[in-house]
Amino acid sequence: MQLWEDVDEYLCTRLIGRDAIMDRVLSASREAGLPEINVAPNQGKLLMLLAQAIGATRILEFGTLGGFSTIWLARALPASGRLVTLEVNPAFAEVARRNLQAAGVAERVQVRVGPAMDTLKAMEAEPFEPFDLVFIDADKVSTCAYYQWSVPRVRPGGIIIVDNVVREGELINLQSADPGAGAMRDFFEFVQKDPRVDASALQTVGSKGHDGFALLRVR
Ligand code: DHB
Ligand code: MG
């Protein structure tokens, strides 16, 4: 919808303004042939604000892509803060590393390449502090698995944000051909019975079409 795009354009102009670094990040990602499925700028800034609001110093991201949301999240961190981002595609990870460098946040961010479940296994063998914030935005069919891994590893009061939970409404279409839609239903049905979190979700329209995100707070 043109109107959704125009309203996003209005909001981004008023609330974000020109961001030469992010412009370069997006054009570098486009030139490298990455799919343009990064979060919208206003979603990215919302991620940063949420991270700042809870004073996050430890962040985990599933799905780096070109590092656009990664950079927004990293901007919320103090110099001593750390973000780990997981990416299955080595070519995407390479683009992200260059983008993180260009954005001046590379020191705070570790890009780990490989299937996330393998990387998580490796991380379990290393000592690490609980996360303040987890952003799940990777292969949609693994969403519930990533969520289940994350909950016990987020500190009480920490948050988990899950992208793409509405999928143009396919979420509630039981006949949907989109495997991601069924995956999101599995996720919500799990959360419904999960006493460890308080959760809400919003559907969104904008420059990225009709979708939505879930926000969960660990008790
Ligand atoms: C897709 C993935 C995303 O994370 C997103 O925000 C939009 C689309 C996709 O795989 O199509
Ligand atoms: Mg997404």
Strand order, sheet with most strands? 3-2-1-4-5-7-6
Q: Mean of residue pLDDT?
A: 98
Number of helices: 8
How helix-rich are the residues, as a percent range?
40-55%
Question: What is the approximate shape?
Answer: globular
Any idea what the radius of gyration is?
17 Å
Q: Any ligands, ions or cofactors bound here, and which?
A: 3,4-dihydroxybenzoic acid, magnesium ion
- What is the structural class? alpha/beta
N-to-C CA distance: 38 Å
Topology as H/E string?
HHHEHEHEHEHEHEE
Reported for the largest beta sheet, the result is: 7 strands, mixed
β-strand amount: 15-25%
The quaternary structure here is single chain
Uncertain segments: none
Summarize the helices and strands and which ones pair or pack:
Elements: H1 2-15, H2 20-31, H3 41-53, E1 58-62, H4 68-75, E2 82-87, H5 90-102, E3 109-113, H6 116-124, E4 131-136, H7 143-150, E5 154-163, H8 179-192, E6 197-206, E7 209-218
Parallel strand pairs: 1-2, 1-4, 2-3, 4-5
Antiparallel strand pairs: 5-7, 6-7
The chain binds 3,4-dihydroxybenzoic acid and magnesium ion.
3,4-dihydroxybenzoic acid (DHB) is lined by residues 37, 137, 163-164.
Structure notes:
- The chain is an alpha/beta fold and 219 residues long.
- 42% of the residues lie in helices and 24% in strands.
- It contains 8 helices and 7 strands.
- It has helices at residues 2-15, 20-31, 41-53, 68-75, 90-102, 116-124, 143-150, 179-192, and strands spanning 58-62, 82-87, 109-113, 131-136, 154-163, 197-206, 209-218.
- It has a 7-stranded mixed sheet with strand order 3-2-1-4-5-7-6, with helices on both faces.
- Strand 6 and strand 7 (209-218) form a beta hairpin.
- Helix 2 (20-31) runs antiparallel to helix 5.
- It starts with a helix and ends with a strand.
- The structure holds 3,4-dihydroxybenzoic acid (DHB) and magnesium ion.
